[in-house]
Write a structure and sequence with these properties.
By secondary structure, the chain is an alpha+beta fold. It has 25 helices and 18 strands.
Length: 579
Amino acid sequence: MCGISGITTNDRGLIERMNRTMVHRGPDAEGYYVDEEIGLGHRRLSIIDLSEGGAQPRVQDHLVLTFNGELYNYLEIREELRGLGHRFDTESDTEVLLTAYKVWGADAFKKFIGMWALVIYDTKTHQMVMCRDRIGQKPLYYTQGSFGLAFASEIKALLQIPGIGKERAEALAEYLAFGFNPEPKTAYEDIFALEPGTYREWNRDQGLGPVRKYWSPGWDVQRPSEREALEELNELLQDSVKLRLRADVPLGVFLSGGLDSMGMTTLFKSPWTGLHVALNEDEHALVEKVMAEKEADLVVATPEEFDYRGDFDHVMKHFDTPFGDNSSIPTYWICREARKKGFIVMLGGDGGDELFYGYKRYKQLDLYSKGGGTVLMRGAHALSRRLLPGHDVDKALRFLAKPTFEDFYIKLRGGFTQDEWPNLLSKEYRKSINGYNPAEEVRKNWPTQDWPTVKQAQAFDWSQNFLSDILVKSDRMSMANSIELRSPFLDHRLFEWSAKLHPDVLYGGELKRLYKEWLLPRLPKEVLNQPKRGFGMNVNDLLHPVTDHRIHPNAAEWLKEQKKIFFLNSFNATTRHSS
């Protein structure tokens, strides 16, 4: 795992400044390639082939590569290339990747199983290609200006370029609605994220070419038998775990106590160590029980060991843009503990909720799609408000009584609706965005296929919340501690499997129904039957209200009452660090 950067000028001082903003992504080494028209930088975190053979940027004939990520199936691709007559000088996946591109061109991306953001420059044709993995696990941002094109793993590197980093006015409204800025947009008018599953080419004569998609999950609504679905799931999970255990450095497992991380461990055969942050006593007891049965080592940390206020600013500076997911704090803690214990590669459970319909909001959306904004629903909500205050049913009915689907979805995700967020902002700011409504992002990007609502929500989540929240959090918090974080659930073949299935197969009205069937012979029933808990914290009393000229003076107190003061603190911290 690494950090990459580059710019189409030969200003070595600038590329060095860009690269050194990301030392945390690769503390083991730095490398540069600079010629008369381009500069490429690389920060190295050594995982596979710890020798100089894995150093980057790698020059091979007329191709130059700077690469962040891992090709888990590099051994299989290397054998295929050897069969075509190619020889290899190193044991690294870097050499395999560049040789594969030399042989197959952009078609090589379709062969890779892994996570990556890469740039390859051809010194003969003066053409460059940028590519990002199918799911979007590894980030790649780019900008254009009088200098041509620049790219980097993190926005902070691009902000080193003079004149780059003009704030986008609508970004704050988006943040209040979603807790992030939906990719490919960022908080800046002139910086964009390369979309997952795509590549773009650049050459010195024509500039940046169009976005080219090399992968899509292949959405469908197939209904195989439960037995067939379980057999395919088992085969895919087995192979995904096997590939992600490849490393030449110590490897551990993050255990939240939930179904995803605990289920993953049922496929491990060799000795392993689990790391757990004990945010909840019940989950902690289940983790200890399962680990004792597996005779595996367990390292436990508790929130009392951490300094929330002291860590807050340090955590937020790694996001470069406002980021409202408070689970970033415990994610940072557990990654820091892993590094202290000597681990460099950790396995986690990201992706399970997206694959198997694990979010509570899917049930609530199901209810919405069958109820609408009727008078009956308004009456039902009035009753539930008295009898079930704060219950999931009450939350669903509250918004069933409202007509807009966009508001309903935003509220289920914990954001502010179009009736709420304008009241948090100053008149001057509201005027500057000229009537912009972030709910349009939901309306514009919601799938139009004739699918059940929960499948539409799954597809939307993959392109929005999952991409711009979950994966961003995992990348930044792991890389902040120089940890490579892998998840077996993020194998693109599992996403293709889930995308093709009708929700009745995976969900059928019960969250993670099929996955629980797969887990039934593998985990204790107490684990399977536990209520779903997030990895976040109640941080309301740990943070201080903040002020900003774009925020209404009374907003902080109202947000504190709503237990959402994290939104303001995060906004303030990230904008301060990026300014």
